[in-house]
Amino acid sequence: MESILEIDNLHTGYGKIPVLWGVSLRVEKGSITALIGSNGAGKTTTLRAIVGVLPTWKGRIVFMGEDVTKTPSYLRVEKGIVLVPEGRGIFPQMTVYENLLMGAFNRRARSKIGDSLERVFNIFPRLKERLNQKAGTLSGGEQQMLAIARGLMALPKLLMVDEASLGLAPKLAIEIMELIKRIREEEGISILVVEQNVHYALNIADYAYVLETGRIRMEGPANEIAKNPEIIRAYLGMH
Amino acid sequence: MVVSPELIMGGLVSGIIIGSLYGLAALGLSIIWGVLKVVNLSHGALIALSMYLVYTLSVMYGVPLPVALLASILTGFLLGIAAYYLFVHRVLGGPELASLLSTFGFGLIILGILELAFGGIARTIPVSQHVIEVGHAPIMLVQIIGAIIAVAVAVGAYLLLYRTWFGRAVRAVVMNAEASALMGVNVVRVLALSFTLGVLFAVTAGSLLSLAYSFTPETGTKYELYSFTIVVLGGLGNPLGSLVGGIILGIAEQLTSVIVSGSWGPLVAFLILLVMLIVRPTGLFAKL
Predict the structure, then answer these.
(1) ipTM > 0.95?
(2) The pTM is what?
């Protein structure tokens, strides 16, 4: 199948300290791909390098057949690489509506705001009721929904969601994961999820990569990874 | 000296008029502080520079006053862009002392040039002495026009920040710079433009203030102190807060000068700053 994103031998880090030691992965068009691994493995770092807020030291990032390794992040967003960051990164003193408008900041998305709002309210009806509320006053689950909705406003071709379940009650976390699945099914957007909660991630993903101390340790179809004894011992033991 | 109601009234009116200019100057400091987290210590020097630009053009070269004002403001705008890349961009994200030293140094360069070129003698720009009665207080027409411009610019800044894509991006960068980058905002461009806007507001205020009072290269220092006080009064990055804070300080200064003496102005500013920092350090109004 055709891939929307291909990373080849990606090296990066913070300051002079390397975090990724040659990560290679691909996301197939229309798939949900999961990047799993323990705390500090380099999952968030990988996503930040893909969207370009962290420079690539070595290696190549190819998006829809185009090398974007040196493209500034605001142009990558315009091309359709969109990251919903860990900790949500909503703008607390702005209203829900203004947050959604910020999502559509890139030039390609700006002209389609009306359509995008309608689609987003279809998936997240609760946000419509909270439109004029300051985003900082939303509950944790609602803030996560806003963060994903804001990501959709950018008209992503690849939506990357970092730790969407973090800090949410299990029931709410599962609801968010189901919504991510719905986004792929209804919108046809390719999705890359990063999760510490391996159980949630493997549940919705088609394919998975296991990241360990900055290197890809294992990869395969999500249902096979979920059955792997090593994975069960290391990550799924609690569930 | 008897303090008549007319004098008080006059103090109030001229306080509002001159205070709106103080507010505009403070807005320049406030935007840069709020968006870039940089305390621009060249603020006062830039204000002084704009005064001498108006002086040079209108008094020394006989350029018509409105043209001189526009030229001074435009020069300040261009200087703002240059100053961002020369003195600010490279120290962003570094230790706070770096940006303080860098902007302070830039200010010293400006002051040095002004001292060298003009010396320390006080200069005045002769303007039309046409006076209008506002509530029994005689106010110079030039100052009224200046105040109208200042209020218009502050309201314009408010609309820019709250009603436009660029303004929303500026506010987003203030709240969370990385998340803004993830929305496709070119953060460096927002920072450069915000700095330039801040300088633009400072030099606009300076150019207009040059018509109201005499000045020396050191005059900028006084307006820098006023700006700090107003930013503390009005809250960071809030244009209407700056305007109201400026008017409060202007009234306090003008009333002091009719009741006690004109030279007490900076003391009043210091006292307001001190009291605000103790009583309500977050300012009178919500921040950006």
Answers:
(1) no
(2) 0.90
Please compute Rg for chain B using Cα positions. 19
* pLDDT over 90 at B147, yes or no: yes
Question: Which residues does chain B have within 8 Å of residue A53's beta carbon, measured at their own beta carbons?
Answer: 178, 181-182
Residues in chain A: 239
Residues 6+ apart with CB under 8 A from B181: A53, A73, A74, B187
The CATH number that domain B5-119+130-279 falls under is 1.10.3470
CA–CA min distance B96, chain A (Å) = 19
Residue B2: pLDDT band with limits 50, 70, 90: low
Give dist(CA B27, CA B235) in Å, integer: 10
- Chain A 153-192, residues with CB within 8 Å of chain B CB atoms: 154
Pairing of strands A58-63, A66-67: antiparallel
Widest pairwise Cα distance in chain A? 49
Task: Note the helical H segments in A52-169.
Answer: 73-79, 96-103, 107-110, 113-123, 125-129, 140-153
Name the DSSP letter for residue B215. Answer: B
Residue pair B35/B180 in contact by the 8 Å Cβ criterion: no
Strand A207-212 with A190-195, pairing: unpaired
User: A32 near A13, Cβ under 8 Å?
Assistant: no
What angle do helix axes A170-187 and A140-153 make, rounded to 10 degrees?
A: 10
| CB-based burial label for B260 (10 Å; 0-12, 13-18, 19+) | middle
Q: For each of the domains in chain A, give its residue range(s) and CATH number, in order of start.
A: 3-89+157-236 (3.40.50.300)
pLDDT, chain B, mean: 92
Q: Chain A contact for B153, CB < 8 A?
A: no
The neighbouring-strand residues paired with A66 are: A63
